[in-house]
Write a structure and sequence with these properties.
The protein is an alpha+beta fold. The protein has one domain: 2,3-Dihydroxybiphenyl 1,2-Dioxygenase, domain 1, CATH 3.10.180.10. It has an eight-stranded mixed β-sheet. An eight-stranded mixed β-sheet has the order 6-7-8-5-9-12-11-10, covered by helices on one side.
Length: 310
């Protein structure tokens, strides 16, 4: 029996790279843990942000595809990324967003916690959640936000669906999530094996159209597998539900399996190992372009094709 450890990482689509890097590395003060390329499209950046070393449950990654049109939010989308901040830091973050001119929603109570909604420069939906227990997790600071107020990792993600039942079955039977209540149009599921990145909300918005992927939308959400055996067991469970799961694929920093859940959202299963210190020491993470071995012979060509980040 696999006990779910929650979300491994979330991958979204972004546009203008300098503006994008400034928002995540400076405004939100996440650590820039890896600059590499999209392994399926080596002419484009794949950037990773996270907590100190990008521990599973903290890594938000972006495919920089600035020639894509803007996406449209809607049903069938892993829609809103929620970051966990200490409960004592909510006022700090509201004042910081106001000072930097970042529009945000009013604080809203949900499942006993307070959330503040905002968007990134491409329109990706985000939330800061004053999360129970986040105060107990040590903070990391890059100098822009004090460690005591820093984002600790993911709180979870909202999946916009038309029918929650088939997606709920996948969360329970493939990943081991447990139902944790309903508020208004949200059905919450929690991973019991993690303090962070454990909340999945299935939201149903009547009359909402189908989403269209593009700038400012999520590409997929990845769930944690402790090792290859756990990943293969999750894959077996997905296949048993009639879902079409890929073979294992190397992503250098983890190994992945992909499938679409019944609502059309792309799910990934990703191993915890080997992690982002595979090819860079902890103190140097994110400082230069790192390529997988199979692209190293083309480094000069790839570097010349990539737009500047800073």
């Amino acid at each position: 029996m696999i006990k779910s450890a929650g979300i491994h990482h979330i991958t979204a689509i972004a546009g203008e790279p300098k503006r994008h890097v400034a928002f995540y590395a400076r405004t939100l003060a996440l650590r820039f843990v890896k600059r590499t390329v999209n392994f399926d499209d080596p002419g484009s950046w794949h950037l990773y942000y996270g907590y100190e070393v990008g521990t599973p449950g903290t890594a938000l990654t972006f495919c920089i595809w600035n020639r894509l049109p803007k996406g449209r939010h809607g049903a069938g989308e892993s829609q809103q990324v929620a970051f966990a901040i200490p409960e004592s830091s909510l006022d700090y973050w509201i004042k910081r967003l106001d000072r930097l001119g970042i529009a945000h929603g009013a604080p809203a109570k949900r499942f006993g916690e307070t959330a503040v909604a905002l968007q990134d420069p491409d329109g990706l939906k985000l939330e800061l959640v004053a999360a129970t227990g986040a105060d107990a997790i040590p903070g990391w600071s890059n100098g822009d936000v004090p460690a005591e107020h820093a984002i600790r990792g993911f709180h979870g993600i909202t999946l916009e669906v038309r029918d929650p039942a088939p997606t709920a079955r996948v969360l329970a039977e493939v990943f081991g999530f447990k139902p944790a209540g309903t508020e208004y149009n949200r059905h919450r599921f929690l991973a019991e094996g993690s303090e962070l990145a454990r909340a999945i909300d299935l939201r149903i918005t009547p009359g909402l159209g189908r989403h269209a992927q593009g700038l400012g939308t999520n590409h997929h959400v990845a769930f944690r597998a402790g090792n290859d055996a756990e990943e293969m067991e999750m894959r077996r469970r997905a296949l048993a539900l009639g879902l079409s799961a890929t073979e294992q694929v190397s992503r250098n920093y983890f190994r992945s399996v992909y499938f679409r859940e019944p609502g059309g959202i792309l799910f990934e299963i990703a191993t915890d190992d080997p992690g982002f210190t595979l090819d860079e020491p902890k103190e140097k993470l994110g400082s230069k372009l790192m390529l997988p071995p199979w692209y190293e012979p083309d480094r000069a060509k790839i570097e010349a094709s990539l737009p500047a980040l800073e």
